[in-house]
């Protein structure tokens, strides 16, 4: 269980202070949760605060009853929290097999690594011995990073816009991967996303707006209010077509 209590993140901007997150209070149990909201609403900052990449200005973060507010990234990782970046990090000097083995935290065979790669839609034999360099596209790196999440299998997994850079065919397959990841970890998955297909597969939805939690609750209660009726969509399209 993860809990944020009165979490605020403020940064200096010019002569003033901008609050990116404002008094955020959340409790996430063993569920599949999506965080959504307008651009600039604080979604990625929320994910980074949970992982320890960004430190809150005020407030507390509790994980399974332990106060982790002052813990660093490595300490949080040791407790079972993992994070997949919106733009995957490039690890030069490593091969794909080595990276997946490091993520797993145990000795893997190449067959083990190939299984994780196959689950994310990569032809394993073409990738397991590849170098992690500029020859890999952003979409390939994203899928390799998700394969790392599968190998690691942590209790709390954060995915920041996992659909970024993924083609439609691969994205459809990745939805099944996320469901599988949720089942095998038996913990919590937090996905930052705008995609309706992802929002429709989770248990709960958190809506951020201007750094505050605007809505939070079961998908069936929150999602219908986020989807514009067809008549409204047509009216908006007509408006912008003549503006």
Descriptive notes:
The protein is α/β, with parallel strands linked by helices. It starts with a strand and ends with a helix. The C terminus is likely disordered. Helix 3 runs parallel beside helix 6 and helix 4 crosses helix 6. It has a single domain, classed as P-loop containing nucleotide triphosphate hydrolases (Rossmann fold). It has a six-stranded mixed beta sheet, sandwiched between helices. It has a four-stranded antiparallel beta sheet with strand order 2-1-4-5. The relative contact order is 0.17. It has ten helices and ten strands. Helix content is 40%, strand content 27%. The radius of gyration is 19 Å and the shape is globular.
State the main characteristics.
243 residues; alpha/beta; Rossmann fold; 6-stranded mixed sheet; 4-stranded antiparallel sheet; 10 helices; globular; disordered C terminus
Give the amount of beta strand, in percent: 25-35%
How much is the radius of gyration in Å? 19 Å
Give the oligomeric state of the chains in this entry, treating copies of one chain as homo and distinct chains as hetero.
Answer: single chain
Structural class by helix and strand composition: alpha/beta
Order of helices and strands: EEEHEEHEHHHHEHEHEEHH
Number of separate structural domains:
1
Question: How many DSSP-defined strands?
Answer: 10
